[in-house]
Amino acid sequence: MPSPPISQAEIDARIADHIDELLELWWAEQGASKPRDLELIALAMPFPRGEAIRALDLCCGPGDVGRAIRQIYPKAHVDCIDRDLFLASICRAANHRAGIPGTLVVRDLKEDGWLDELPGNYDVVATVNAIHWFALPMPIGSATACRSLAGRVCSNEPASSTSTCC
């Protein structure tokens, strides 16, 4: 991926005082069903509540899925990966503020080696409203890697009789 025009430190400094505003704009763009989708994905995980699970928030955007998981599993360790530096920066700030432990990686799933910086050994890989952005078929390496990362993959994607993206 090309380097951003400004450094990570400068991005972090510019957004630091605006995290809540940026999240509200994101949630407005995502639609009214997003909070329900996030809760549903976290509740669908077949682990005892309060267990210290290891989760990967795949295509994390600003990290909503990981934070929803932490609401149900307060001892969860949540790693995050996304290709968008700006959204990942929001994720980093919001997760830091919420005290969520984990690694954040900025990589494109279409590139080889996107798993290299992630610790692995996940109980679950979770994603909401992200996979539909992939051109079909989804890169087989990404799909296979997701399944090999964890025993469970939880995904909640929009459904429509017509294509609305790309």
Task: Write down the secondary-structure element order.
Answer: HHHEHEHEEHE
N-to-C span = 20 Å
**Anisotropy-based shape:** globular
- Give the helix proportion (percent range): 25-40%
Number of strands: 5
Count of runs of 4 or more consecutive helical residues: 6
Structural commentary:
By secondary structure, the chain is of the alpha/beta class. The chain has one domain (8-156): Rossmann fold. It has six helices and five strands, in the order H-H-H-E-H-E-H-E-E-H-E. The longest helix is centred in the middle third of the chain and has 14 residues, at 85-98. The two termini are 20 Å apart. The model is unreliable at 159-166 (pLDDT under 50).
Key descriptive features of the protein:
single chain; 166 residues; alpha/beta; Rossmann fold; 5-stranded parallel beta sheet; 5 strands; 38% helix; disordered C terminus
Summarize it:
The protein has 166 residues and is of the alpha/beta class. It has six helices and five strands; from the N terminus they run αααβαβαββαβ.
Task: Spell out the blueprint of helices and strands.
Layout: H1 8-15, H2 19-30, H3 34-43, E1 54-58, H4 64-72, E2 77-82, H5 85-98, E3 104-106, E4 122-128, H6 140-149, E5 150-156
Helix pairs in contact: 1-5, 3-4
